[in-house]
């Protein structure tokens, strides 16, 4: 297996439940990072249902900014996932690739976060959680872009309707999910 020093791995957890996976890599490109795998836990009964695509795209977007790349490409979008990508701002370019431009923002000092632990009561709503996280992110980074706000808003308002269960991108789209029930700890 070839080592990918600029590869980006993301796992989305709620407590001890794995809710989503994403892998992105620029591979040999110097301007574009590609989402190679994006998958939510199948079954629809997980706490981040409807937010997997939005949260993953936000994370890849920030990584692309750090690398000073100009766009994100979904390498192998799953048939049926088009509406969620379009709602997040992805369009087809002249070559037919599904891409999202990375908004130009001034380069700031970056804060590397390997793990962020969150706890919240069962009574809190997902919207309140996102609002608190956004407020904390603004305090840490200084400013939230319109692109970031749009992606979060799509997840909160349309995610459950638009986001298909299971795979959203990747070569395993035709095979059973990588998120097997045995992953729950």
Please tell me about this protein's structure.
The protein has 185 residues and is α+β, with helices and mostly antiparallel strands. It has one domain: Aminopeptidase. The protein has 4 helices and 7 strands. Strands 1, 2, 3, 4, 5, 6 and 7 form a 7-stranded mixed sheet that branches. Helix 1 runs antiparallel to helix 4. The two termini are 28 Å apart.
Architecture blueprint of SSEs:
Elements: E1 8-14, E2 17-25, E3 32-40, H1 52-67, E4 71-74, H2 82-87, E5 91-92, E6 98-101, H3 126-141, H4 146-162, E7 167-169
Keywords:
alpha+beta, 4 helices, seven-stranded mixed beta sheet, 185 residues, Aminopeptidase, disordered C terminus
Give the CATH level 1 class: Alpha Beta
Largest sheet: 7 strands, mixed
Strand content: 15-25%
Q: Mean of residue pLDDT? A: 77
- Name the shape in a single word: globular
| Element string (H = helix, E = strand) | EEEHEHEEHHE
In short:
The protein is α+β, with helices and mostly antiparallel strands.
